[in-house]
Amino acid sequence: MGFVRGSEIISVVQDLFLDLKNDINEVKSDVNALKNEVSELKSDVGELKKDVAELKEDVAVLKEDVAGLKEDVAVLKEDVAGLKEDVADLKDRMDKVENAVIRIETTQENVTNKKLQLLAEGFQAVPEMSEELHTLSDDVEVIKFDVDIVKKVVTTHSATLNKFGVAK
C-alpha cells in the first residue's frame, strides 16, 4: 500500500461527508414523516379518547336505564303476583258461583219444575172442575126442586092425615 495523497483523502472524506449528509437528510425526512405519523396518531388518539369518553357517558346512561328497567321489572313482577292472586281469588269465587248455579238448576229441575207442573195440571183440571161444579149446581137445583115437591107432598099428606085423625 502506498501513500494516499491528501487530495484523495479529502475527496474520500468529502464523499463520506456527502454520504453522511445524505443519510442525515434521509433520517431527517424519516423523522419528519414519523412526526407527521405521530401527529396523526395523536389526533387519532385524541378522537379515540373523545369517543371513549362519549361511550363512557353512553354506558353510564345505559346503566341508569338498565337500573330503571330492573326497578320497573320488579314492580311489574309484584303487579303480576298481585294479579295472579286476584285471578286465583276470582277463580275460587267463580267455582262457588258455578256450584251455586248448579244447586239452583238442580232445585229448579227437581222441585220448582215439578211444583209448576202440578200447578199447571191443577189449572188444567179447573175447567173440568168448573164443569163438574156447574153440573153439581144443576143437580142441587133439581134436588132443591124435588125437596120442595117432597115438602109439599108431605105437607099435603100431613094435612090429609090430620083430617083423618080428627075424623076418627
Question: What does this molecule look like?
Answer:
With 168 residues, this protein is an all-alpha fold. 96% of the residues lie in helices and 0% in strands. The termini are far apart. The relative contact order is 0.02.
Strand residues, percent: under 5%
The largest β sheet comes out as: none
Spatial gap, N to C terminus: 225 Å
Please tell me how large the radius of gyration is: 67 Å
Q: What order do the SSEs take from the amino end to the carboxyl end, as H and E?
A: H
> What is the helix tally?
1
Helix/strand/pairing category: mainly alpha
Unreliable runs, pLDDT <50, ≥5 residues? Answer: none
Number of strands: 0
Shape: rod-shaped
The average pLDDT score comes to 89
Question: What topology emerges from the helices and strands here?
Answer:
Elements: H1 6-167
Gist of the model:
The chain has 168 residues and is an all-alpha fold.
Which key features would you list for this structure?
168 residues; mainly alpha
